[in-house]
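Quiz preparation item.
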């Protein structure tokens, strides 16, 4: 009985930890729905997760920090648009990401765009708020840039 209780406690505890982790959407249409519901702009992270050194550095120094996590939960809906070289993706995801790469004119990685999105009749439109990339100085420096972008268009 004791083993069952401990197992149950660990299981419940792991769900509580998972519930607090950031959600990175990969389906932009679903992310737009969440954005509209929560009245928050989209943070579109264009990355080459398995080959881009600056992308990996941005993840490590900013996007995976407690400061960023707290800020993101309060301010944005996260969308990861990945262009991996070694990791397989579905044809639908590749198509979506390539279309968004062209829509936003992405020429280098990492690039982070902030935008408000609408989805009317299956057609997705964006109102760009601004963009950034890697910013030296850790989470505080990066969040200062991000705040200027999202606060100036609110």
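Solution:
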């Amino acid at each position: 009985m004791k083993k069952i209780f401990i197992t149950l406690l660990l299981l419940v505890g792991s769900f509580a930890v998972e519930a607090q982790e950031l959600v990175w959407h990969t389906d932009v249409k679903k992310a737009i729905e969440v954005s509209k519901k929560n009245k928050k702009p989209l943070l579109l992270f264009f990355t080459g997760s398995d080959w881009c050194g600056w992308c990996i550095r941005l993840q490590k120094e900013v996007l995976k920090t407690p400061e960023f996590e707290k800020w993101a939960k309060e301010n944005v809906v996260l969308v990861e648009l990945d262009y991996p070289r070694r990791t397989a993706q579905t044809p639908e995801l590749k198509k979506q990401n390539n279309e968004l790469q062209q829509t936003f004119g992405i020429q280098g990685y990492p690039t982070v765009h902030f935008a408000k999105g609408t989805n009317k009749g299956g057609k997705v439109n964006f109102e760009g708020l601004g963009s950034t990339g890697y910013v030296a100085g850790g989470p505080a420096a990066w969040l200062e840039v991000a705040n200027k972008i999202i606060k100036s268009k609110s």
